[in-house]
Recover the amino acids of this structure.
């Protein structure tokens, strides 16, 4: 497992934000397809991109998709798209056609199919699986990642590009990339911060018995984990 550990949540998110910018810049004139996760941690990354990289990047080459989305309207406080629009897209010069939101307000099964098609039509395929350039993941205290929660480990092997998941605690339906698509990406980064995640991280990194119940443990070893000291309390970093 590859990890980079930083003192604070802010430093961790800023380091990953800069890593992504470097990859975009390195790709010269190529289009870059990035899939974002939701939750609160990415907001710091968005602030770094908005504050420091409005003009250092040709945002017209960058296409944003979502790793997962809550099945809510875009103006709902829970909407990953809505929060990204507020914290990032409103601050950078990115064409609206580069923003490929999940229609959280649509019927979940119908939207999973539609979003699968949108991704498959716009991304290169490898063995029939769409390949994102960069996938940014978080991890919940229960070891979920994307919207693949412990009771739905089978979504890690789903054949579809996008599937319907569910938050088992709230019953809220989710639209999420399936495991094979996540694991196929060129670059996969986790951004995990906070003491609440330390014990699950320890289980995953030390491959303790039972770690396989955590969906995040099934993400490829190619992933690079950006961790703050609190989350990495039991994990040796680089
Ligand atoms: C979501 C996310 C989810 C998130 C984790 C961590 O839509 O909620 O995609 O997988 O990454 O729950 O969330 P925090 O970064 O807020 O801890």
């Amino acid at each position: 497992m590859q990890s980079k550990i930083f003192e604070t949540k802010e430093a961790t998110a800023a380091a990953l934000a800069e890593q992504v910018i470097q990859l975009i810049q390195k790709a010269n004139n190529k289009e870059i397809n990035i899939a974002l996760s939701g939750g609160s941690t990415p907001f710091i990354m968005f602030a770094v991109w908005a504050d420091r990289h409005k003009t250092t990047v040709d945002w017209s080459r960058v296409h944003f998709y979502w790793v997962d989305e809550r099945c809510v309207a875009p103006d709902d406080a829970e909407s990953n798209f809505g929060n990204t629009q507020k914290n990032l897209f409103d601050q950078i010069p990115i064409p609206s056609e580069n923003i490929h939101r999940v229609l959280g307000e649509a019927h979940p099964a119908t939207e999973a199919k539609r979003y699968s098609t949108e991704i498959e039509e716009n991304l290169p395929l490898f063995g029939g699986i769409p390949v994102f350039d960069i996938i940014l993941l978080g991890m919940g205290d229960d070891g979920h990642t994307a919207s693949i929660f412990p009771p739905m480990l089978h979504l890690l092997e789903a054949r579809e590009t996008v599937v319907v998941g569910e938050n088992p605690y709230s019953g809220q339906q989710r639209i999420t990339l399936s495991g094979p698509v996540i694991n196929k990406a060129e670059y996969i980064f986790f951004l995990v911060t906070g003491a609440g995640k330390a014990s699950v991280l320890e289980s995953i990194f030390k491959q303790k018995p039972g770690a396989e119940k955590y969906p995040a443990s099934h993400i490829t070893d190619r992933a690079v984990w950006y961790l703050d000291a609190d989350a990495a309390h039991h994990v040796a970093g680089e």
Notes: The CA atoms of residues 203 and 210 lie 8 Å apart.
